[in-house]
Amino acid sequence: MLSAIIIDDEARARRILEKLLEEYCPQVQVVAQADDAPQGLKAIKKYQPDVVLLDIEMPNYSGFQLLDFVEEVTFEIIFTTAYQEYAIKAFQVSAIDYLLKPIQIDLLIKAIEKVEKQARSQINKRLQTLQANLDQATINRLALPVAEGLVFIDVNEILYLKAEGAYTKFVLLHEEPILVSKNIKSFVNILDPQMFYRTHRSFYINLYQVKQYVRQDGGYIIMNNNDIVNLSKDKKDAFLKACALPK
After folding, report:
1. Least buried of 30, 96, 187, 232, by fewest C-beta within 10 Å?
2. Which CATH number is 98's domain given?
3. How many domains does the chain fold into?
């Protein structure tokens, strides 16, 4: 059984969420509710919950600010909000769930299932990754799912991504490659298109890590670690333009 606290300044929103959990997530027991950050902090200290369902927008202190008062986050967090302006991608790549009100039942069920599986010890790193991404207009850090849990990397450390079937290999500047159980398209939709370019169906490269463009043999790219990356003929002109190189 998972113990949960709901923190939301709207009483109706708290009642609806508790009812949804009761009906569709019977493995969750709501042990407390709070209508603002100070009361929420007291409840967290008292009950030491497994998960906190936390509204982002609240009077005086936001959901993010509440976490500033927690010495060490030892619980999972599911953020909730009625506002769509928050960067959904930032939550996705930080491995932290985000539910938009009115809450969809299937997404709530998935979020609770993730809470049951997540490695609780990494929650602070995930929050740091989320904050780093929310502070900027583009994604700066990634929480990559691997067999052992999550690996956290800075986007600047990526040399290139290589598609390997349903998996993606991250080739990094100073670390060993990481094989991730997601296809390359999911990252193409997330990373900054001003920084990354898809040179081939199997490659998505960091333009700032390009060492050389070679015209011979139809054209190919040498990265800063001397790896050779394919360049499709129909991608060549756009690649040279992106790198500000002569055709």
Report:
1. 232
2. 3.40.50.2300
3. 2
Same domain, 8 and 130: yes
Residue 160 belongs to what domain range?
Answer: 153-242
One-letter amino acid identity for 237? D
**Per-residue pLDDT tens digits for 195-227:** 999 999 999 999 999 999 998 887 899 999 999
- CB count, 10 Å around CB of 157? 16
Residue type, position 152, single letter: F
Please name the amino acid found at residue 198. Answer: R
pTM over 0.85: no
